[in-house]
Amino acid sequence: xxxxxxxLSYVARQGARVAWFMGHYVASQDFRDTGQGGEQRPAPxxxxxxxxxxxxxxxxxxxxxxxxxxxxxxHYPLPRDHDGSLAEVLNLSREFFADIPRAAxxxxxxxxxxxxxxxxxxxxxxxxLQNFHYQTGGYLTRDSARLYDTQVEILFSGxxxxxxxxCIVPVSEYLRGRDQRRFALLDVACGTGRxxxxxxxxxxxxxxxxxxxxxxxxxxxxxxxxPYEAELxxxxxxxxxxxxxxxxxxxxxxxxxxVPPDVRLKIAAEFxxxxxxxxxxxxxxxxQLGDRPELDRLLQSFPRNFHEPYYDSYLSEDLQxxxxxxxxxxxxxxxxxxxxxxxxxxx
Length: 347
What we know:
- By secondary structure, the chain is α/β, with parallel strands linked by helices.
- It has helices spanning 4-32, 50-72, 86-109, 142-155, 160-165, 168-175, 194-202, 215-225, 261-274, 296-306, 311-315, 319-326, and strands at 184-188, 207-212, 231-234, 247-253, 275-286, 328-336, 339-346.
- It has twelve helices and seven strands.
């Protein structure tokens, strides 16, 4: 159960985060929409669709209600989010606005391969060597890793953490009545470790392992997850450095829309390989076409605005068929604001 104080604390904290990050989004749009000489460009037609905007606000509020209900149900503790000290938050804000002109120049020039270097080909797959989202450094630099969560929260108006936390519920249901110490969870594409930390806060005795392709992001994850203990490794999702049947649970968030279709097939097979029989896969990524038809045009515009070269193919990928072919049984699917969570159990 949650007390009235807990609920008020949650509302105050999440309301402040939404206002902070949404304010950054509005300010950055104004910056991007201002042309040379200071003239204001007209807002794009999509921004004038009041019905869609109203629907998104309703879905955002529904997400936070579910988030708080999950706390009351005992799935995870009251969220704290750990955005950093006031000085750190202000510094990240400054860095975000400083990077906007650089990202805008790349977008204007369709320059999304600045991080590419043939010498990196032996360390990373070619599809990874891009400036995803037109961000400086792609996923390869320390500065990018430090700024990433701020950028994502601004994109999602302060809701990214709340969406990620919905992956904890199927884990909680799987572990109910079981000794956490006897189970192991792998988070694939763990990034900066946001979900890893949430999992350790909810299940301190559970063995949690994180894997990400970027050494810089793994290092940032170590900083973020501390003082909790978690094993963090650098490695590629399609050939993971773990033995067969070595995990009971596997989570992955926002990975599949950033890899080509053939790589998705390989990753699904790897998920099945490292999971034990009757193990659970908790998958989260962007909504797809048809999940919320009124948002289909918004989803289709996203890859051109933010350089997501594999997003179009993801939008029409039959995820249930893909995972069933790899050896999984479909359990459930649910939408949370702009993300979709799917749960599968290994046959």
